[in-house]
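User: Could you write out the 3D structure of this protein bound to uridine-5'-diphosphate? I've included everything you need below.
Assistant: Certainly. Input first, then the structure.
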Amino acid sequence: MNKITIIAGARPNFIKIAPIIHSILEAKSNMVAIDYRLIHTGQHYDNNMSGSFFEELEIPTPHNNLECGGGTQAEQTANIMVAFEKELLAYPADVVLVVGDVTSTMACAIVAQKLHTKVAHVEAGIRSGDWTMPEEINRLVTDSITNYFFTTSHTANQHLKSSGISYDKIYFVGNTMIDTLLKQRPNFKQPEIWKTLNLSRKSYAVITLHRPSNVDEEYKLKAIIDEIINHSGEMPLLFPMHPRTAAIFELLNIKHSRLHPIAPLSYLEFNYLVERSKVVITDSGGITEETTVMGVPCMTLRDNTERPETITEGTNELIGTDPKSIAPSFKKLLSGQWKVGKTPELWDGKTAKRIVNLLTKL
Ligand code: UDP
């Protein structure tokens, strides 16, 4: 495989593709016959959710931007499919490489396979078992038409095997999101708010929420925020807000002296805050992996996870979506009882190299 079309559409995708592109460029400079075409589907498009990641993570400008932002799940899937079919017909590839579980991942995998182009899925095989999550549908569909499965964990391998995928198509390579984290850790950047609020290490919490189950109903979001405020002692609460959440949060008019709603941060600024925080409260998947590697306690406000190793090995705990479960978790944290984790196997910063090496041999 030496002509690789790489798909990226949303924030977590950019973080996962950066090391893959850098490894391809490195191989190319060592005379390996490999090249890539980067397609941005436009699913996330503003600077906070897209542009800053390209700058900070030194991702080269995409060869094509399909500009398919906005719309319902179905509209977005359809728009991306129509636009990507034209792109792939104009620029055929040996393999289309998709990452993660966003709408762009699924839409482009379908287009590729229908045009008889092989599909490689990075972060294949993870499952929450929760079909109400759009991401779970994206994972199931993508993996059902993937040729090469690059996985982050043994549980992912197991899911694929039990769904009938033959062992020789599964490549346990590790986690490209962690490649980026380990590479960028020395470059984390102090955000302005650090000085404005006079923050200090391990004295504040970071909150991120964007799953429909937590933020789409106003009363639920309000109950969660109220519980966090009531049980977090004296901690400042920094809440970089996903655009989906911001739209609903505005309607709630919640104000508290310790609650600081802010715009989404750039990658280097966000992880500067996370690395030094006392705790992260989140419903993100990727962030539970990053807190695991940085050893930061993490409370996940979900009833399930597709990343169980962040719990069995890492610092993450699944505390559920019932706001009442927040109080006991803070009690545990503030009394110093939170577990200490370890980094899962192969989350070592070398995953992208493994993937590119395998692609050149396939
Ligand atoms: N992130 C960021 N700025 C923020 C919030 C998150 O750079 O204000 C990064 C975070 O470090 C992680 C990724 O975005 O790498 C996670 O994205 P998200 O939570 O949107 O997606 P998920 O992992 O849930 O699919």
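The mean pLDDT is 96.
User: Perfect, thank you.
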